[in-house]
């Protein structure tokens, strides 16, 4: 096994620095993707929730109290 010096800073290693940068970029991309998805869902939820036509005179009709057996 190869031994490394104990006083060496792990951030000075090229591999560790590349992994930290790649992780930060991936995390940032995921955060942006999540925000875009949430904005899309909020806009989609807002569409189609308005009544454009005239309201029905009696939107609810009460059913008869008589039970029908099939």
From TrEMBL:
Cellular component, GO, one term: cell surface
Highest taxon of source: Eukaryota
Protein location: Membrane
Transmembrane segments: 16-40
Keywords: Glycoprotein, Heparan sulfate, Membrane, Proteoglycan, Transmembrane, Transmembrane helix
Membrane topology designation: Single-pass type I membrane protein
Residue ranges of every copy of the Syndecan/Neurexin domain listed in the record: 11-67
Coiled coil: none
Gene Ontology biological-process annotations: cell migration
Primary subcellular site in the record, as a coarse category: membrane
Recorded family membership: Belongs to the syndecan proteoglycan family.
Name recorded for this polypeptide: Syndecan/Neurexin domain-containing protein
Organism of provenance: Petromyzon marinus
